[in-house]
Amino acid sequence: DHAMAPVWEVNNVWLVLAIVVCWTAFPPLFQIAFGDLYPLFSLALLGLILRGAFFAFRHVADNPQAHRVADLVFGISSVVTPFFFAASLGAIASGRVGEGPLQASFNPMALAFGLVSVAATAFSGASFLVGDARRYGAPELTGYFERRLMVSGVALIAIGTAALVVVALEAPPLLHRMLFGAGLPFVLVTVIVTPLVMYLAWRGIFRWFRVLTVAAVGSMVFAW
Predict the structure, then answer these.
(1) Residue 64: predicted pLDDT
(2) Looking at residue 185, what is its pLDDT?
(3) 197 and 127 in contact (C-beta within 8 Å)?
(4) What one-character DSSP code corresponds to residue 6?
(5) Rounded Cα gap, residues 29 and 98, in angstroms
(6) Does residue 190 contact residue 216 with C-beta atoms inside 8 Å?
(7) What is the 3-state secondary structure (H, E, C) of 77-143?
């Protein structure tokens, strides 16, 4: 709660800003993308609503069972939301937007991007929570999130590599531009910095690791 409270409303701000800018500046793109990808956006928005609602319900649950239910729904929706938002990016990158909602929304590229997003958000979240746990003087939580940082980092490397294989099969021009074009420097930053963050956490060197986490995950987006 301490970690999330200062940035909670930012979720709503960036979402509204992005949608308004998209339909104002690029109305044909907005019409085509949202027309074909409404299943993905609907599921993402459902997760966003449930996440916000059950984050609040957790604080007013009057018995352990209700609190567990609120925790469960909050946790599931926190995975669903980044998965389907990123799946929409994968669907666009697949080049299938315009072929209909089913073909555009549910394909290997959408699945791969969604899984990478979940791994990346888990990795960045664990990294920042290591810093918060240290700042609040909670060594048991520091170790808790260090372990999750390592696990999510391994998952991110494995899923990211598999996603590149999917891109190679589904959208070879995109992979070529990522690995041999303007995206290459960002790919290299991600490949180098992600294990570096894990190494720093493993060795207990808590300097610059959160900045490096932002660089690693952000470079994935810029590479795309």
Answers:
(1) 85
(2) 93
(3) yes
(4) G
(5) 10
(6) yes
(7) HHHHHHHHHHHHHHHHHCCCCCCCHHHHHCCHHHHHHHHHHHHHHHHHHHHHHHHHHHHCCCHHHHH
Contact 178, 187 (CB under 8 A): yes
For residue 139, the one-letter residue type is: P
Q: Which amino acid belongs to residue 131?
A: G
CA-wise closest residue to 192 among 212, 163, 172 = 212
Q: What is the mean pLDDT of each run of 10 residues along the chain (224 residues)?
A: 74 81 89 88 90 83 85 91 92 85 86 94 92 87 92 94 92 89 92 92 86 92 88
Q: Which phi and psi angles does 29 have, rounded to 5°?
A: -60, -45
- The total of other beta-carbon atoms located within 10 Å of residue 10's CB is 9
C-alpha–C-alpha distance, residues 10 and 6, integer Å: 9
Determine how many CB atoms are found less than 10 A away from the CB of residue 8: 12
Please give the backbone phi and psi of residue 193, each rounded to the nearest 5 degrees, phi first: -80, -35
Tokens of 24: 């104002």
List the structure tokens of 139. 């060594």
- CA dist., res. 16 & res. 18, Å (int): 6
Distance CA 153, CA 108 (A): 22
DSSP states along 46-70: HHHHHHHHHHHHHHH--SHHHHHHH
